[in-house]
Write a structure and sequence with these properties.
461 residues, 65% helix, mainly alpha, two-stranded parallel ribbon, elongated
Length: 461
């Protein structure tokens, strides 16, 4: 596999995806598509039904002579013909005549790739659901945990950690929806022959393609052109957006686990070594792997756009490129999601450190709150000028912001000492952080429930 690995990669559950990316699974998928083609053609009278049944029965990887296939490969120099020849050999003489009838190499290979991609895609969806569920628990637990909100790398106004997590959940719910929406365009069967115009099969070819798609639980391509690559690009783009959602979480964890922040920490197992020279090191291994693999995944788009614009009805350079790029995208996404699931499940939150950091500026972070309390009395613009002057004085002179507020005649005239003290506390100015957190968790659980119900309906229909 061509993702970026470290020691954590060996400890994570890949949900069987790595097996699906092995060459044996590719060959079995080729056989599955050839079997579906024969079955469809037998049902529709294109080939003898008895021959179709025998082809389907023999379409098992243990029936393929790979040594013979390699020998033929060295002679003919074609990536698919040797496979076809040994499959024909695995069948009796009569049924072997009807293997690959009216199809071309890319019909089988691209349909098979889509078939495998769909299986992997379903595991990606399962990961997304698990990550959202993990984050739901985290958000609920910390719906009221006060922390500093930050913009432009500086303290802004207070929020809760639950609110921060709800932002992540919101984007992942969008990705869950997006991943489902692209399925009908991405996971398709292509059986149009050499240039996609059903030249060798005519009208019955359209019916064959539709039936192949039904057998494989794919969608039939409207125009089965081998030169249509936009669905593949769309899928890679969709994976990149999903990776970006998780990348954002990883960047935040990576940064705020630094000792100067100390607000979160990745889950740690005693005995894990962070450095060969520094015994104290506990490194953010999950986060770093997400970040590196996401950055690699983003790099794949440009080359696919260039390749998709190749001229004419088919181009083996484009086929070769998309095979490699798609496999790499799937491998990278697997590594990202494996790590994200464990990260979201085992993340440790230091509530006390968040509280301390929220109070680092001794109430300055609540300046907007104080300004908005004064605004009804003197207008928003004047209130802004007043609080700006006091806040900047506190910053530059290191004077107590509280004392500056208490010594201002206008503010003392409007508010009691107790009220001013209250306006300086971060927990009194978190807006709708808690409410929005709870609403997002509810929406996320509703989205997951709908997804799971749809999945059950697909299985039992």
């Amino acid at each position: 596999m061509r993702a970026l690995y470290d020691s954590k990669s060996k400890t994570l559950d890949d949900k069987g995806i790595k097996q699906l990316l092995k060459s044996e699974e590719k060959y079995q998928a080729w056989l599955q598509v050839e079997a579906a083609l024969a079955q469809a053609q037998g049902e529709l009278g294109v080939i003898p039904q008895d021959a179709a049944k025998k082809i389907v029965a023999q379409a098992q990887i243990e029936n393929i002579d790979f040594e013979k296939m390699d020998e033929i490969y060295r002679k003919v120099g074609h990536g698919f013909v040797p496979f076809l020849k040994v499959f024909v050999m695995a069948c009796d003489e009569e049924s072997g005549k009807y293997i690959h009838y009216g199809a071309t190499t890319q019909n089988i290979q691209q349909t098979a790739q889509n078939l495998l991609m769909k299986k992997i895609h379903q595991q990606f969806l399962a990961y997304i659901v698990e990550i959202i569920e993990n984050l739901n628990l985290l958000a609920e637990k910390h719906a009221d945990t006060v922390m500093a909100g930050r913009t432009h790398g500086k303290h802004a106004i207070p929020i809760t950690y639950g609110y921060k997590v709800s932002v992540w959940i919101s984007e992942l719910v969008m990705s869950l929806e997006r991943m489902q929406e692209v399925e009908k365009r991405v996971f398709t069967a292509m059986m149009g022959g050499a240039v996609g115009a059903f030249n060798s099969t005519g009208e019955i070819g359209i019916a064959v393609q539709k039936r192949v798609a039904e057998i494989l639980d794919l969608e039939p391509m409207m125009i089965p052109s081998r030169n249509i690559s936009s669905p593949k690009i769309e899928y890679i783009n969709t994976l990149q957006l999903l990776a970006n959602n998780v990348h954002k979480i990883a960047e935040e964890v990576f940064q705020t686990s630094i000792e100067e922040f100390g607000e979160v920490a990745e889950g740690f197992t005693n005995g894990t070594v962070g450095s060969s020279t520094m015994p104290h090191k506990i490194n953010p291994k999950l986060s770093k792997g997400i970040i590196a693999n996401a950055q690699m995944l983003y790099s794949l788009s440009a080359v696919t756009y260039c390749s998709a614009a190749r001229p004419f009805e088919a181009d083996s350079t484009s086929n070769m490129l998309f095979d490699g790029v798609m496999n790499q995208a799937l491998e990278l996404m697997t590594e990202i999601l494996m790590r994200a699931e464990e990260l979201s499940r085992t993340l440790t939150i230091d509530e006390e450190r968040m509280r301390i950091n929220a109070e680092l500026n001794h109430g300055l972070d609540n300046s907007e709150y104080i300004m908005m309390q004064i605004a009804p009395h003197i207008g928003k613009d004047q209130a802004h000028e007043l609080i700006y002057d006091l806040a900047i004085e506190a910053e530059l002179t290191k004077k107590s912001y509280r004392e500056l507020l208490l010594s201002n005649a206008m503010i003392r005239n409007l508010f009691s000492d107790e009220e001013i003290e209250g306006m300086l506390k971060p927990e009194n100015y978190t807006g709708l952080s808690t409410q929005l957190t709870k609403e997002m968790v509810y929406e996320a659980r509703t989205a997951i429930s709908k997804f799971q119900q749809k999945t059950k309906e697909r299985v039992y229909v």
